[in-house]
Amino acid sequence: MRVLSGVQSSGTLHIGNYFGAIAQHIELQHAHECFFFIANYHALTSVQDAARLRQLTLDVALDYLALGLDPQKAALFRQSDVPEVCELAWVLCTVTGMGLLERGTSYRDKVENGLPASVGLFYYPVLMAADILIYNSDTVPVGKDQTQHIEFARDMAGYFNNTFGKPVFKLPTARLNEAAIVPGTDGRKMSKSYGNAIEIFGEPKAIARKYKSEFKTDSTPVEAPKDPDTCNLFAHLKLLAPPEELEDWRQRYRKGGVGYGHVKTRLVELYEARFGPFRERRAHLAAHPDEVEDILRAGAQRARAVAQRVMHDVRTACGIVTARS
Ligand code: ADP
Ligand code: TRP
What we know:
single chain; 325 residues; mainly alpha; Rossmann fold; Tyrosyl-Transfer RNA Synthetase; two-stranded parallel ribbon; binds tryptophan
């Protein structure tokens, strides 16, 4: 089975990205053929500052490698090192109706949240479909917010195959984690662009401040019983606490007597225990950017070989002639 996924280099990665997507990626590398890439062309829809985009692109690579991505197993690469995806995106948009993209919820959400309403932002799902289809991916592990995009990729694969009468593309499926949507400190979906994120590699003091002072909770008194399933702090306990401890918290919530302050203090400890051990490896990699560059280059070579074969079939199916196909 071939697994593919991407994460935009549009900001510092947070634990929503980790529990929604990256943790699955790292787990899947042991059993499947995996391709993971840094979606820097997608990031260009929100980051339009060259130095910052370069830095964020490197940061995503450092985060993945520090968290345990093994480049001997999974190919890790930059989207821009496989330029054929942009070519495929064009071909796909010629068989895709406007109506499909107009149904896209992410464009509307992003514009409502202040991103410029560029043509690129509207076209974003086409480029994402190209990312998925160009590697003949079977499965795409993502957070729940991306499922519509995967549906669109399936639709576009079908339009292409039907239009040209050749089964060039497989229809990929989404794979979701239990932690489908991780809430941020304000209770909305945690996102790089909402200012509500707990970073994976945050400074311990800053993370403690976020949990203790920025995390919004209701004003239920300490003695009162609380519903664990509607509490955002409890949602974080679910991610970070071992099962027996979680069960204990669940009962204490229901009984009453739990203060949110206690939960916050424990969350800071659990965060540190989970992510603290990866800091050293990240610092080592950050001090050796050439090693990281070699890894990205080798990953791109593996990915591009597949992409070039699929693109050859695409050009042949639709009658596009180039000197190289
Ligand atoms: P962001 O919304 O922070 O910009 P991205 O859109 O780059 O994040 O998402 C990268 C991956 O992380 C995607 O697979 C996405 O579904 C997942 N993801 C992002 N935010 C969350 C969240 N709050 N909960 C679960 N998964 C998330
Ligand atoms: N749109 C995805 C996100 O915001 C990133 C992405 C781009 C992606 N291309 C992809 C994810 C292909 C999976 C497959 O998270």
